[in-house]
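Let us begin with a simple case.
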Amino acid sequence: MDQAEFDQYAEHYERMMRENIAVTGEGPEYFARYKIADTHERCKRVGLQPKQILDFGSGIGASTPLFAEFFPEAEQISADVSQKSLSFLGAKYPGLSKLVHISDDKLPLDDNSIDLAFTACVFHHIAPDEHHQWLTEIRRVLRPGGLFMLFEHNPFNPLTVRAVNTCPFDENAILIKSSTMAERLRRAGFEPPQTDYRIFFPSALAVMRPLEQAMKWLPLGGQYSLSART
């Protein structure tokens, strides 16, 4: 992860994202909300009531107000390599999250200190040979029985690939197959993850979206999630 690369986009990130996904008929809020809603539902299913949440690669805080909404009792920790992005987050959502700057190859957090770790479309920005290092770090800071929720773009969805290929801050992105990412989680010490696929219908077909709950097995959604316990 390159601080300079993300610092240069921090001020205009939200506008650029909104323009890039306009073809879907939705704004960034829609995509951020479904991820936190799915994370909340997964926590309920496994009986986890997180008190400490790590947002790994938080950027300018797209998920920050949603964590406060869905997990009002939890302490948020927003971690990112971009100090400028964290500054924007802190100014926009003062007091909602503890800001943690990642300045080397370790998270500045104690072992077994986090109940829920979350990351959204971050690992395609990390060089593949560094994935094990960061997955192991996330595993280190999670408590026994903790949960890791990872969301990524699906390289088998043509609209997703088009969006990534035309997005300035995805210039160096390397999309990752869900099976590849799942194997990397297992090698980092996580239990075998559950894979769900999401985002099948644009806003013009929003009436069809309730069907997505029954389509999570279908590897054609625009994004996927991996949920894994420690």
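The second case is a distinct protein. As before, the sequence precedes its structure tokens.
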Amino acid sequence: MSSPPTRRPVTIREVAAAAGVSPKTVSNVVNAYVHVHPETRRRVQGVIDALGYRPSAVGRQLRSGRTGMIALAVPSISAPYFADLARHVAAQARERGLVLVVEQTEGQLEREREVADGQPVRFADGLLLSALEMPDEELAAPHPDTPIVLIGEHGGSDLPVDRVSIDSAGVARLAVDHLVSCGRSRVAFLGDKAPVHNSARLRMAGYRAALDAAGLAFDSTLVPLCDDWTREDGHRATVALLAARPDVDAVFAANDELALGALAALREAGRSVPGEVAVVGVDDVGEARFSWPALTTVAIDRAFVAERAVELLTTRLADPALPPRQLQTPFRLVVRDSAPVTARV
């Protein structure tokens, strides 16, 4: 019995003819170049999908000198914020026909240097980097082999780099303003670290600014040190806080993981939330809606971070001469049961 004939691969010229465009336009769509009209991109992509066109990966790499891969380097892939961010970045990469590689730096300087230098993601065309330790001069250094887009607050605001940042001081101020508006006056801050990183420093600054605006004095006994920003750290810090300041009536946690740990410690201590102690976190991770009580938090728009960071990277790859661009991520207060608008019972 003879085997069925092998199907001939669809050519780029056949796609172009069916879509009514030039082969160059098809190539631009396949390579995710930005200078293609959205309607044209949709029409060409529809023909590509319908005909089952598959560009030659080897040929494309030889022609462009690129692999079609980008990398995302974050401190921890197990942290809910970064796990969800990676999910959004992967979706954005897939829409552009790119493959995403995710690397964990554990917030260590040498690991951040390795990925910035193209190791171990040396096959990536560009890098999205959430740094915690790299000094400004290294972040601002040219990276011609692997263009970098920074994500987050680390580094000076005037660095000549592409970046999608977060107004951490503004985030903190929004959270603490809400707690004060709920009638709280002894507001603790969870997230102070030694050594401090930019996120902690800026959220502390926003916390203090909100206290000042409300006429409340800063009190260091309401700011226990945290080793890190995990649930366990939030639990330990809250136990210490309750021992030092049993009169605390509100907790602002620098992220939701700390806040979830705080909720557990308050529950174990028999303290009612929000009746005795109101709690607000940051990030709006998935677990925040399902905690008990449901966590009030400041939501960071991770979909925006992912979309804009990938856009900055792909346009930088297409035009290395572009000036540095700086974008800021939207955020909003999500009020739930741990700090409702109504005053405490």
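Residues 74 and 156 are 19 Å apart (CA to CA). The chain has a mean pLDDT of 90.
Keep these points in mind for the review questions at the end of the chapter.
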